[in-house]
Structures are given as structure tokens and as C-alpha cells.
Write a structure and sequence with these properties.
7 helices, single chain, alpha+beta, three-stranded mixed sheet, three-stranded antiparallel sheet
Amino acid sequence: MLRVTLIMLLMMLAPLSSLFAVESVIMDSALTPEQAIYENQPPGTPEDVLSQLVLIDVRYWGLDGRLHQGQIVVHKALARDVRRIFAKIEQKRFPVESVLPIAHPLIQQKGPYGLSSDTNNTSGYAWRPMVGGRSVSLHGLGLAIDINPRLNPYVRGDTVIPAGSVYDPARPGALARNARVVQYFKTRGWEWGGDWTDRADYMHFQKIPEGLDAWVRSYR
């Protein structure tokens, strides 16, 4: 009788245990701050910039439908924003292919210092100029994030980056004006490149925190 009672109790508890099951997390990136911020940098990258960057662990649902952990490098003044935004991305299950720092070996394989447009990787900091210009990009100061570039390309006239990308806002992982991710960035004071009138940079979000305007101008 006792055995039967125990079996029935276990059967009753089984559905409850599934509610509290922990989703296994795929580890995409586990770099140290030293590796992610200081290694594999282009010559002449200012120490003044590097010293203000932080490495943040983030979780996200991949295009494969599984939970992943990656890392992103941004300016320390945006750390709280980025943590909250990626928490919302995870909560809403917005699919992201990968989130790897530019110094990650897989990104470094794609081009010198990892500076290649042939990627669908979501990233923040990358010491480089603006597209089509000479001034330092806000990515170079850790003040911008690109999400799923192949699904959310940069478009200006006949120029499309990454090359061959086709923007379809209905695809999983694509961003549109009414997307929850876009709206959440905006509520925290970020600017979305999809709103620009002279070009569309659907992957791109940027923010210059209060008090950093002069510092940004010194690099642009």
C-alpha cells in the first residue's frame, strides 16, 4: 500500500517538476575581460577607450530555438541598459544568432581584427570608422550595438551591408519599427538606425549617455 501511495504521489508531482525544469544553456562565449577588450585590437586603438569598456554576459534564444549564453563589450556607462535590454530579449524570446565580442576567435577568423561585414553576429564595441566615412564609429567607443546584421542590413541606395542580405521584417530575428525590441531600446533613450531618412541601418542602435558628448566629439 505504501509503495502504491508513493508511486501516485510521484505521478502527481511530475507535471510540477517540469514547470521548474532548468533550460540547459549553450555556452557560446566565455572570454575573460582581458581577452575580450584588450586582445586582437587594431594598431593604435586608444587605451583611453579600452579602459572604459566592460564585458557583459548575456543570454538569448538562438535561431535554433535553444537558450545560449554569449558576451558583449560596451562602454561602462551603458552596462545597465544593455543588461536590461538583453533580459527583455531573452524574456520575449526574440531570436539572436550569436552574441560574440569582436575579439572572439570565431569572429577573428572572418577578417583582420574581426572587422568583417560577412556575419550575422550581434556585437557592440569594434574600433573602426563609420561606414563610408573616416570618423570613428560609435561602435569604436562602445556606444552602439548591431543585432542580427544579415537579417537587419545597412541599406543606402544600391549599397547593402552585409552584401546579398535581403531585409524582410517578417522573418524571425528581423527588426521593425513596431517590434518590441526596438521599442524597448527607444524607451531607454537609444536611437534606431531604421528610423534614419538618408539611409536605413536596421541592425543598429546607439546612445550617447549624458556627460559623454565632449568625449565623443574628441574622437569624431
